[in-house]
Amino acid sequence: MDSAGGLASPGALASCGVILSLRQSGWAKGRHDTGLPGASPAPCQRAGLSSQPMDPIAHAFSGSAAAAAGLRRITPLATAALVLGAVAPDIDGLLMFGDEFTALAHRRGLTHGIAAVFVLPLFIVPLLMAWDYRVRRVRDPVARPARPLVLYGLAAAAVALHLAFDWINNYGVRLLMPFDGRWFYGDALFVIDPWLWLLLGGVSFVAWSARRAALAAWAVLWLLLSWPVFTSELVGASVRALWVIGLIGLVVIRWRLGRQPAVGASDTDGVSSGQAARLARWREGLARAGVVLAAAYVLLAVAANGPARREVAATLASEGIGASAQVMIAPVPGRPLAGFVVAETDAGYVLGDWHWRGQPRFTLRENALPAQLDRTEVAAAAQARPARDFLAWSRFPYAEVEVDGEVVLVHFRDARYAGGRGGIRGPSVRLARDSLAELAP
């Protein structure tokens, strides 16, 4: 932290995101004992969160961008409060180092509910005040003291922003925890959105990249963020090209600034006080513009989702498929105008594709998914603890059943990740057929 309480380099941002994302990468194969009579452990591919390997990065960027836009000046350590508050709810990611399906059942729960907005800052503010009293003001006895109530408000606002960001994607969030475990889904943007990275990360980059060490750290971070953009099968060539253009634009903006003082820095490196003040105002205005653009982008995506879902439901009704209980249009990475459609029917789910500029906008796929949850073998397999945990998380659950002689293998899936979209896959439960005969009506 610098003397003003800001982040001296993007290292803190990178570490917050990378550390918290460790629990979402490196998924391996595991085995689960079903605990059912006549059942045995079956290979079970872990949850494979390919859809959200690095989401804490965007959260850290949101807190940093809010600070760069002017909130950092409210009180010393404001930047730290905003960044820590923005990433704090993902502390539940530590569950991913244990049993993956238990983690799914509790993911985005207690730390992502309305109570967390008020509780999590109670852990953040004492840490910041201890730093302020024992480190910062020891180094600079005449420094302005941090204001704990203001830090609490900033941290609470950052936690609330985190919950809003988690709501806008199709993974969902349990906003009413601990009072109600219902899931809420915005279905507006993909869980990893490169344009939010560029807008909010670009604001942070311009704000805190004055020194060579900071520039080097940012270069490494942008390379890391580029990795999923260029390696994911879900990202198209046009998105990759625009990503590169965006990065070049950030480099040009930073080059035009030259070696100027960072936001909140006391060392102006030979720049006159008047020039430094003008640069600070210009930089802060640029940060505000970036935040406004990001907010407008999110709001437009949210507003567009409702009419799209209604049109899909009307099209399904006209096709004789019937009214759907739920319709999801899952965003495509970097392509907010396109989406993957899942519509719930009495028998299961129908899949399709959506594009705002398409003719027609909604195209129905032929491969409908039967849910099969009422089958005897599926109902029996659903009693296994990994299956119960997965179903507590799943939004559009369905099962695939394999019969091999005297063995029945039940695979639990979620239609959000059907159609070759990768993502999270549920447990597989192996049952003996003779045990199922006793359960048959």
Please tell me about this protein's structure.
Residues 2-11 and 18-54 have low confidence and may be disordered. Helices cover 48% and strands 14% of the residues. The longest helix has 46 residues, at 273-318. Strands 4, 5, 6, 7 and 8 form a five-stranded antiparallel β-sheet that branches. It has 14 helices and eleven strands. Among the domains are: 50-185, no CATH class; 305-369; 371-438, no CATH class. The N and C termini lie far apart (67 Å).
Output the radius of gyration.
24 Å
What is the overall pLDDT average?
Answer: 83
How many helical elements? Answer: 14
Gap between N and C termini:
67 Å
Order of helices and strands: HEEEHHHHHHHHHHEEEEEHHEEEH
* Main beta-sheet strand count, sense and barrel state: 5 strands, antiparallel
Percent of residues in beta strands: 5-15%
Output the structural class. Answer: alpha+beta
- Tally the beta strands: 11
Low-confidence stretches: 2-11, 18-54
Helix content: 40-55%
Shape: globular
Give a summary of the structure in a few sentences.
The protein has 441 residues and is of the alpha+beta class. 48% of the residues lie in helices and 14% in strands.
